[in-house]
Amino acid sequence: MEKGYKGNKILQKFTSEITGGEAVLPVATAPVKQIDLKREAIMYRYYYYIRICKLTYSDTLDKMKADFFLSTYQITQIVTCNAEVCKRIFNEGCDIKTLTNKYPGYSWQTRQEVVNKLFKQKINN
């Protein structure tokens, strides 16, 4: 995770608020109509890592950097600028089967499979 970026603190606060209680949106958000398919996929992937896999914030960003070939800065900007969509996804919720049907090109493993893979990567590094 990139250190020193102010947006990381905002997104961490936002994430903890939506996973632990009612979300307080940190910035103005884009209307739902303007979100494109890639950004929506990023939002669902963010939900998947945070809510289903229960990864830490930094592990989530690391996994998403690899998934989408984006920097931490770009990911935090997308999630923050589309906070209303993120809030809707977190409030509606979904399971692995729904995510697999919606985005079949992504690997939607169970939490245990993701955690085991992440643990092996950290041991090897």
Task: Write the topology of this structure.
Elements: H1 6-20, H2 37-52, H3 57-68, H4 72-81, H5 83-92, H6 96-102, H7 111-124
Structural write-up:
This protein has 7 helices and no strands. By secondary structure, the protein is an all-alpha fold. The chain is globular, with a radius of gyration of 14 Å. 23% of the residues are buried.
Report the sheet-strand fraction.
under 5%
Radius of gyration: 14 Å
**Mean pLDDT metric:** 80
How far apart, in Å, are the first and last alpha carbons?
A: 15 Å
Report the total helices. Answer: 7
- Element-level helix/strand string: HHHHHHH
**What gross morphology would you assign?**
globular
Number of strands: 0
The main sheet comes to: none
Q: Helix/strand-derived class?
A: mainly alpha
Helix content: 55-70%
Q: What are the low-pLDDT stretches, counting only 5+ consecutive residues below 50?
A: 22-26
Features:
125 residues; mainly alpha; 7 helices; globular
Brief write-up:
The protein is an all-alpha fold and 125 residues long. Helix content is 67%, strand content 0%.
